[in-house]
Amino acid sequence: MFPRPVRGQARALYQIALPVSLVIWLLPLLAVALTALRSAGDLAAGNYWGVPSSINFGNFAEVFARTDLGAFILNSFWVTIPTVIGAVALSCMTGFALAVYKFQGNLLVFFLFIAGNFVPFQILMVPVRDLTLDLGLYNTHLGLVLFHVAFQTGFCTLFMRNFIKALPKELIEAARVEGVSEWRIFWYVVLPLMRPAIAALSVLIFTFIWNDYFWATVLTQGPAAMPVTAGLYSLNGQWVAQWHLVSAGAIIAALPPVAMFFLMQRHFIAGLTLGAVK
Amino acid sequence: MLRTLLKPIALAAAGALIAHAAAARDLVINTDTSDPAPKAAFQALIDGFKAENPDVTVVWNNFDHEGYKTAIRNFLTAEAPDVAAWYAGNRMGPYVEAGLFEPVTDVWAEHGLNDSLKSAAASMEINGEKWGVPYTYYQWGIYYRTDIFADQGITPPKTWDELLAASAKLKAAGITPFAIGSKALWPTAGWFDYLNLRVNGYEFHMDLTAGKIPYTDPRVREVFAKWAELIEPGYFIESHAAYDWQEAVPFFVKGEAAMYLMGNFAVDVFKAGGLSPDQIGFLQFPTITPGIPMAEEAPTDTLHIPSAAKNKADAKKFLAYIARADVQSTLNATLGQLPVNKDAAVPEDKFLAAGFGVLSNAYALAQFYDRDAPADMAKAGMEGFQEFMVKPGNLDRILDRLEKVRARAY
Amino acid sequence: MATAELSLPDRRSAARATQRRLAPLLFLAPGAIMFALYVIIPVFRSIWISFYDWDGIGAATWVGLANYIELLDDEAFYTSLWNNVLWLVLYMLAVPLGLMVALFLNQTVTGIRIYKSLFFFPFVISQVVVGLVFAWFYDPSFGLLKLVMGWFGLDAPAILADERYVTYGIIAAGLWPQTAYCMILYLTGLNAVDPEQIEAGRLDGAKGWRMLWFVILPQLAPATFIAVVVTVIGALRSFDLVSIMTDGGPYGSSRVLAFYMYEQALGEYGFRMGYGAAIATVLFLIMLLYISGFLWSMWRAERGSR
How many other C-beta atoms are found inside a 10 Å radius of the C-beta of residue A237? Predict the structure, then answer.
């Protein structure tokens, strides 16, 4: 193991250093959490960093009561979940096609998917916005979902294709000898083996899409369809200097991906670090 | 056989549907009135309209004030409402040019608006047509702390020299003369507009925002020279580029700054911060070049009919409704702003009364830099103003840049 | 006669062969069509639009290279380009920083797993929240930075309002989640380091830095590769933080190409789709250099594995 495991006095020192460094690392976040619990009075009195005069969960209630935050959060779910399903489903198939079959242009198609995945969003912005307007899907959940599914398919294909490529080829060969049709091979042989990859991708895509801000601003415009990231920013415009509310809103907006991360940590990290070890 | 039997029934059903649709006519209204007072005012306005027109079903979409500015171009092209809120002056230019707004000259003629809304008529006109109906406006000016002025023995300045003297006195007493938050850029335009209106006058200002005068003109430089007389001695609060205008209000409330050049909507925020109305005074922006008639800044908010609207007949009815004197009286009482209709009652409020006095005697009214100038000029201009307020030494570079934008934008 | 009467297994295998030829097409079609519609075609449409003067609502006029010529003489474009370079260079710090944190956390004490996930935390939350958190951290009148610097008797500058510091301030905010990301990559990489090689290194008398440099880092190469890849993408996509923390200000000094493009095309005062598309095309070309490099290395790996 590197570095060498700490022993003796160093170990004791290390165990003190850990929590201290963690607090420093998360300091900005702790400050926000503390502020979300402050009363408006504290802020008005300039008590930003002292002990709160009272622990006040009312800010959270107020955020929901006075703004559209609840609607924004729901929108985020309406956009994120279908995207996860769509992108994972499509990429299971594209990944299968590119990993299992040898055909002309296989590598070209694969590289197009990868290349598209790195493209700066801005070069897609104007045409995608026009396309969405033309389809009559501007400011709808579906409009965002379609784009996200298409775009994430690039990344997911890379992921799935490499995963399937690493599966033992013999399984597929054996099935073919048995005379199993291609679709049934995909459905009954390969797909069950892909469960870990599907889990990892789902968690990852959930976080990516939940946290998307750019497309939320480009393709939506109000409580009808706007996800919480963009919604939070527009609320920030309305609540200038009302940091206790902004903080409470920020915490609520961050909760779902954080919960997802802690519940599905193993899959999440497996997804992120794919390829980090050979 | 069956089909022939069913046909009349289907027809009848369809007929009933159409009749139903016609009976309950939808009127879709999009507004940017997300703040509490405007929201309440519009709610009452729409209720009033519904009471008079029970056959119309009003669908009201109320947008976030800031988000609306970018949302409007999307819904105008994608799914147009029947009535949309916007602003007067050049700010409506892009939509008029693109044919997205419907001319409403006929509404003006039919309801005598050319007379009753006379003060705003010019700012609603492009290419000889009227493009909307104004319903409210408000004054800009210098709000000051009466208590601090009294402590320091300052009388409200009427001329530039008096303003400089008052500022010097405040600065010496450890009080920053002016609060401003320039993060959102537009508060700087208030300063530029007033300085230009006072140094060079209304006609020059309008020619400049209409792109007829180069930014490198010595008369434009004169405006910045006056501005520098306030910037260089440190008469504006520090780090103003870090604050929105609301975030700069605490300096004014705590007495760390004594004056604030703003629109009348700021009074609510001053009061919410803890100032009593007696502590706040309003003064007209002082004279700079003697003999130049005093023009004022008075941004006007308006309603328009998109050309893709489905129910233009009722939309016109709604525009005529909001132009009425009695409607504007009630609406503006809740808004805390001034009605445009000359027969409407001015709400009872000392700041509005002061503002009404100033505006009624004004030589002319300017909208605001970002409403008078076209969009890309406005953006570049306000960025330049902010840069100048932080780094007055960059003036030459700023003006060259603005001149480049002007050459392209018009 | 015999040729026409294929035996049953042969006929089946012919059908099977057709099926196997068609299968990849059918499996690819839905994903590929979506991807083409929303990603590949829009890239070319954007490049096409960049030759037009178009306000996004009216008719478009062909202007040839005028947008690009204007870019060459646009101060704001150079500011954005320069900031993009700053982002690219400084964002790379996330890679060594992530390695440092990973080395620090690669121990076996009780509760280390929880520490690892809490250190990773900033990556999970959205950039909107990170931006708001840091904007507040930097606030010149009551921010945490001012408070901390005050303890040392220092006066905190208004980071986000000062053109000298603003871009660095935003990059620092971006480094926070990005470091966490690199950290997790290295932690996984460190897990897979071959203990025998470490022992061999120790026997040769390698310690500390030498050990890290000559024994560990070569084994971490795949993790480093991915860390660099995702960090470059992150740096070029630096839109969210700029938009949330400063809106490009003060007076445009913290713009990056991605933000400038949005501002020109869809911002409050932006009606210039063609000009925005031209900026996006430049950004795309920069990215293309990098994509080509990445694909090249992928291609070599693919060839190697065959």
Answer: 14
Q: How far apart are CA A209 and CA A227, in angstroms?
A: 10
Query: Which among B63, B77, B246 is the nearest to A222, CB-wise?
Result: B63
Question: What's the count of helices (H) and strands (E) in chain A, helices before strands?
Answer: 16, 0
Helix (H, G, I), strand (E, B) or coil at B111: coil
Per the CB < 8 A criterion, the answer to whether C57 and C205 are in contact is no
Q: Is C61 exposed, middle or buried (0-12, 13-18, 19+ CB in 10 A)?
A: exposed
Distance CA B238, CA B389 (A): 10
- The bridge status of strand B257-263 relative to strand B140-145 is antiparallel
- Closest-CA residue of C relative to B407 is C70
Closest C-alpha to B178, from B127, B237, B240: B237
Smallest Cα distance from B71 to chain A, Å? 6
Q: Report the 3 state secondary structure along C145-179.
A: HHHHHHHCCCCCCCHHHCCCCHHHHHHHHHHHHHH
ipTM of predicted assembly, 2 dp: 0.88
Q: What is the pTM of this model?
A: 0.89
Using the predicted structure, report yes or no on whether residue C134 has a pLDDT greater than 70: yes
The residue of chain B with its CA nearest to that of A44 is B273
At C218, is the secondary structure helix, strand, or coil? Answer: helix
Residue A25: pLDDT over 70: yes
Q: For residue range C18-74, what is the model confidence (pLDDT) as tens digits?
A: 888 888 999 999 999 999 999 999 999 999 999 999 988 778 899 999 999 999 999
Chain A closest-CA separation from residue B254 CA (Å) = 11
Cα distances from B30 to residues A24, B15, B81, B323, in angstroms, run: 47, 30, 6, 17
CA triplet C141, C143, C149: central angle to 5 degrees? 95
Name the residue type at position B269. Answer: V
Measure in Å the smallest separation between the Cα of C62 and chain B Cα atoms: 16
Greater confidence (B292 vs B360) lies with B292
Per-residue pLDDT averaged across B130-138, rounded? 93
Distance from C-alpha of A198 to C-alpha of C121, rounded to nearest angstrom: 22
Closest CA to A63 of A88, A35, A42, A89: A35
Q: Which run of H or E residues covers position C57? A: none
**Two tokens, residue C113:** 């797993």
Measured between alpha carbons, how far is A214 from C168 in angstroms, rounded to an integer?
A: 22
- Closest Cβ–Cβ partner in A25, A97, A149 for C24: A97
